[in-house]
Amino acid sequence: MLKILFSPSEGKNSGGSESKRALLGSNEARKNILDEYNKIVLNSDETQIKKLFGFKKFDDCKIYMNDVCNSSLMSAIQRYKGVAYNYLDYNSLDASAHKYLKLNTIIFSNLYGPILGGDTIANYKVKQGNDIGDIIPDKFYKDRFSYQLDLFLSKDEILDLRAGYYEKFYKVTKPYTTLKFLKNGKSVSHWAKAYRGLVLRELAKRDIHSMEEFMSLEIEGLNIKEIKVIKNKTEIIYDIVQ
After folding, report:
1. Distance of CA 30 to CAs 25, 27, 112, 139, Å?
2. Is the pTM of this model over 0.90?
């Protein structure tokens, strides 16, 4: 089976009506960080809340000021919105693709750590790179979840579509594949996010379960320029053609 490692997004969709269930790994291992988040969000220190969320205006914080342990829940793959998720366009996919995304995508959340696309989470806000109280999220989850992820992924092939920052949460220890996107010979930021979303969309639409199947995919707007193998990482470099 192919598992896809993916980034979250600063933007979130509000609401949700899904049931609470066990998250990938251990719910108990997340208790300290969720409690610390709630302690900040539910107190009256506006400066601390704005710093955690990354907002300048306190009014912008209010939509996220909820107890994440007792909030409306939505599957992670639907909760996030942003460039990659806009290009994924989850709502336009069929039920089979939805199931694929929920079972095979692992998203690295700044609050919840590694979660499956189908894991149900609250609407929350943690600016990328911010600590949660005295807790450094990437170190917290790397220490507690690396062994569990190694076990969980032991029989799977891995396509790592994470942005560089989220590699801090988990270092892949077995052979895996990454993608790099070039436009006019230069790495791109916005389009990298867009094409990560498009690649994930094609994987779900085509029900791709191996890297061999992935390599046979033709993705509109992308041409393979080069494939590099460095230790346990295979990097597929694409030219964006438009």
Report:
1. 9, 5, 7, 13
2. yes
pLDDT, tens digit (0-9, with 9 covering 90-100), for 177-231 = 999 999 888 888 778 999 999 999 999 999 999 999 999 998 988 999 999 999 9
187-217 as b/e, with b when 16 or more CB fall inside 10 Å?
Answer: eeeebbbbbbbbbbbbbbeeebeebeebeee
Helices 137-152 and 31-41: crossing angle in degrees, nearest 10, is 150
| pLDDT 10s digits, 80-103 | 999 999 999 999 999 999 999 999
The upper half-sphere exposure of residue 70, i.e. CA atoms within 13 Å in the direction of its Cβ, equals: 4
Q: Which of these, 52, 20, 25, lies nearest to 36 by C-alpha position?
A: 52
Rg (CA), the chain: 18
Higher-pLDDT residue of 97, 28: 97
Query: How remote is the C-alpha of 36 from its chain's centroid?
Result: 21
Give the pair of three-digit tokens for residue 26. 């251990």
The single-letter code of the amino acid at 85 is Y
Residue type, 104: N
The strand pair at 157-160 and 2-6 is best described as parallel
In 105-208, at which residue ranges do the beta strands (DSSP E only) sit? Answer: 105-109, 113-116, 120-121, 157-160, 176-183, 186-187
Q: What is the number of alpha carbons within 13 Å of residue 126 lying toward its C-beta?
A: 25
Q: How far apart are CA 208 and CA 217, in angstroms?
A: 9
DSSP SS3 for 176: strand
Q: How many residues does the chain have?
A: 242
